[in-house]
Design a protein that fits this description.
Length: 263
Amino acid sequence: MRVPVVLAFLAAVLVTVTSTTVSAQAATESKAPAEFVALHDVAPAILQDIRYSTAHNFVGTPINGYVEPLCIVTAPTAKALAKAESYFLTQGYTLKVYDCYRPQRAVDQFVEWAQDLTDLKMKDEFYPQVDKANLFADGYIAAKSGHSRGSTIDLTLVKLPAHSTPPYVPGEKLEPCYAPAAQRFPDNSIDMGTGYDCFDTLAHTLDPRIVGVQHSNRLLLKNELESLGFVNLAEEWWHFTFAAEPFPSTYFDFPVSRSSLTS
């Protein structure tokens, strides 16, 4: 091979490697579009219990991309949640969010975790009746999540005055997410019949086995949010998407951090 050809080849390789590195860094260090805001700045009374920034989730470790325990959403979503919060405060409740914007790298970690059938450390709480091999087929895990578009939130209601929730201690005994409220992991939310992120059909919003106060509590949350333009995911009582989302087909990967916000 002649020297000029070799140099040209090496230059092409260098450009390729450099471009790949720059692209990877851009994906990792990218900023959120100006349409994204911190929910606390719009609706400071809404409580935040961002589970994926902790080890208390179905994976059992803090999740990739959750640099801070912060709820980030699109501005229209935040404004609609502020309206909902104003209503619930008059009824003696406050909203509490478990998850908001979720970076794609977190979703990728969920997929990787679901493929490791040997990792069952959080099974007793979050999916005691589900074979981990069926998480994809049953729809509990997917390669894309509406959370990554910035207008989907996981949330619940807390009766005022709000009491603190004791922190999860890794390794402590786990109770099924569908156990009676007094037995499952303590949460200051009102009783919705299951805990958050419960991989079980009992978590379906209108499951006929959920009756009485638990059913009424679910409808209290669902009816008010739907009146403000949110759509509930039928399989998860806590999952709502603002229908007029500004990014209906874009999945973002910037970190959950104030430093990601441009506004």
